[in-house]
Amino acid sequence: MYKQILLVDDDICLAYAIQSYVSSKDRQIFIVDDSNVALQLLQLYAFDLVISDIMMPNMNGYKFLSKLRLDNRLVNIPFIFLTAKGMTDDRIKGYNLGCNAYLTKPFHPSELLSLINNLLNNRMSLKDPISSENNIFIEDVNYTDLSDLTTREVSVLKLLVKGMMNKEIASILNLSKRNVEKYVSRLLAKTKTRNRTELAQLPLSVLLRANDGTRTRE
């Protein structure tokens, strides 16, 4: 199926280089250098993914993403930050605002392409009631043990669903990478999911049941 990606960056030379590398016969990249213009285009056309810089004139990338996540029609569009702002606090702010991936400049083009492919494939899996990887109905999985999730497990799960890797989760939650791996293993067992992909595709209703606000255990 044909995919449309919106690239928002005021570095036009870089933007055209990305367009040349990422475009294909089934994927088209549209470039704008202003977040306000990007918002107007998103209201008019259906995009499958947004890639945006943070440091831009008129409206920075953080404000741009905030506006997307407040719009019911745009809230679920996958979003990648592609920026020179590489500090941990910058990354945490981006993820807290709802970005799906955060890639710092300079970057390897193949890493960006991998992120794009993963997000687009996940988006298709979520639209399809049948998991393309395991050929099962997601809603048929037994989630009876979710009431037993600890506060820390819920926190790890929320970040994992956003597409974060173990290293990023460890940084945000001030944990060791080894401890994050242990929590992910527990989540797989308690949710009866078979791999990280299934875990990241848990329905919203499941996540809400796992976040009833009564847990205090780690």
UniProtKB/TrEMBL annotation:
Stretches that traverse the bilayer: none
Modified residues (4-aspartylphosphate): 53
Domain Response regulatory: 4-120
CDD domains per record: LuxR_C_like
Organism field: Corallina chilensis
Keywords: Chloroplast, DNA-binding, Phosphoprotein, Plastid
HTH luxR-type domain residues: 142-207
Domain of life: Eukaryota
Presence of the UniProt keyword Plastid in the record: yes
Coiled coil feature spans: none
Alphabetized InterPro entries for the sequence: CheY-like_superfamily, Sig_transdc_resp-reg_C-effctor, Sig_transdc_resp-reg_receiver, Tscrpt_reg_LuxR_C, WH-like_DNA-bd_sf
Protein name in the entry: Conserved hypothetical plastid protein
Pfam families listed in its UniProt record: GerE, Response_reg
